[in-house]
Structure formats: structure tokens, C-alpha cells
Amino acid sequence: MDTKALWNLSYGVYVVSTVDVDHENRPTGCIANSAMQVTYDTIAVSINHENYTNQCIKKSKKFALSILGEKVDDNIIPVFGFQSGREIDKFEGVKTEKVNGLDVVADSTGYIVCDVDDILETETHTVFLGKITDCGLLKDEPVMTYEYYHRVKKGKSPKTAPTYIEETATEEGLAYKCTICGYIYKGDLTKEPDDYVCPLCKQPKSVFVKL
Ligand SMILES: Cc1cc2nc3c(=O)[nH]c(=O)nc-3n(C[C@H](O)[C@H](O)[C@H](O)COP(=O)(O)O)c2cc1C
């Protein structure tokens, strides 16, 4: 089996938002690439059991996809893709539009809002099937593909992403790995200033381990 074939699948990059009914209905959500249209009015999205967004969608029974563009604000993916709504209010300071009671990211190319119609449990992820209740366009900009995220933005995926692939330093020399997002720093991290933060997940130097 050559798992590299899986890398040839195409995806977009989305903020999957919902409401946190246990915290005064505040908005929360995470980054997902594993979303697709499965019928003319149904979207499927796969969310890891460990992600807080999973339990929030199960309670609220609705979710929205904000379809990110290539020029999306640099903070959106680190905050929504590498931190948890258990610990922080991810939408604080994020400009949103309210659609059917859900917050969608204003700095996105468009949105699709769904009511959960059915779920499918796998060992690690819940696949939510959502009936589209509204959708619309926001910014006119090329959409960010998962391939663009990796190739141009040099982005990584955390272990909870279905498409996660373990990365190790293969080149000779010093390297450090961010234990939060998996980012590999090549070189001597000790020479970076004390306030150095991981360029992807914005966590401090202390979360890096030497490889
Ligand atoms: C590019 C990218 C793609 C991701 N795709 C998925 C996905 O499809 N499904 C998923 O469950 N998590 C995915 N993740 C991981 C979640 O966004 C991440 O674990 C997040 O911190 C969960 O936040 P939460 O605990 O607030 O739900 C992805 C992350 C990145 C950066």
C-alpha cells in the first residue's frame, strides 16, 4: 500500500463553526480540511472525537463552514487549527457575520450553514452530515486549497486532523519539533530570542523538543 496516493486527494481549508451551548451559546469551532458536498443539499465534515468542536456540534446540532481564501488573516489557522475552544474563546477579536444563529468568519470567501441531519461514527472521528440551510459569498479571492496551505504557507496539520502524517527531521544538523503543532525548526533554537514563538501555532519556545 502506497499511502502517498492519499496526498493526491484535493481539499479546501475551512473554519467549522458552531455554538457552545454550555458557555452561553458563544461561537466556537476548528479548522477542517475534510469537508465535502455529498448531495445537492448535504455537506459532510469529519471531526475528531478529541476536538471540542465535536461535542459542541453534537449539542447544538448545527455547524457552518467558512471557506478560507489564500489571503486569510495569518492568525485564523493557528488559533482555530492548533488551539482548543476548551481553553480559549477563539472568536474573540474575529470579525464575523451571523447567519442562522451561527458566526461565520467575515474574512473568508463564503460560507455554508447546515443543520445536522445524521452522523457516522468512526473509531477516531465523527462524520457529520449537514443539510444546507443557507450559503453565500463574501470575499472575491482564490480559495485556499489544502495543497496551497502545505506548499505555499508551509503549514502543518495536527494529530487530530484525519490527514495527519508524522513528520521527522531527516536532514543532518540541529532540529526541534513543536510539540503542539508538529512544526519543525531547523537550526539552533537556543539562538532565538526568549520571546520566540512557533510561527504556526504561536506557542512559546518552551514547547519545542530537540530531535
Ligand atoms: C490544515 C488543518 C486541517 C485540519 N483538518 C481537520 C479535520 O478535517 N478534522 C478535524 O477534526 N480536525 C482537523 N484539524 C485539527 C483541528 O482544527 C484542531 O485539532 C483544533 O485545535 C481543534 O480545536 P477544538 O478543540 O476547539 O475543536 C485540522 C487542522 C489544520 C491546521
Give your account of this protein's structure:
This protein is mainly beta and 211 residues long. Helix content is 10%, strand content 36%. The strands form three sheets. A seven-stranded antiparallel β-sheet has the order 2-1-5-8-9-4-3. The chain has a three-stranded antiparallel β-sheet with strand order 11-10-12, with no helix packed on it. Strands 6-7 form a two-stranded antiparallel sheet. The longest helix is centred in the N-terminal third of the chain and has 9 residues, at 52-60. It starts with 13 loop residues before the first strand and ends with a strand. The model has no long low-confidence stretch (mean pLDDT 91). The structure holds flavin mononucleotide (FMN). Flavin mononucleotide (FMN) binds next to strand 2, strand 4, helix 1 and helix 2.
Keyphrases for this structure?
binds flavin mononucleotide, 7-stranded antiparallel sheet, mainly beta, 3-stranded antiparallel sheet, 2 domains, Rubrerythrin, domain 2
List the helices and strands and how they pair.
Elements: E1 14-20, E2 26-32, E3 35-39, E4 42-48, H1 52-60, E5 62-67, H2 76-82, E6 96-99, E7 102-105, E8 110-121, E9 125-137, H3 146-151, E10 175-178, E11 184-186, E12 208-210
Antiparallel strand pairs: 1-2, 1-5, 3-4, 4-9, 5-8, 6-7, 8-9, 10-11, 10-12
Bound molecules: flavin mononucleotide.
Flavin mononucleotide binds next to strand 2, strand 4, helix 1 and helix 2.
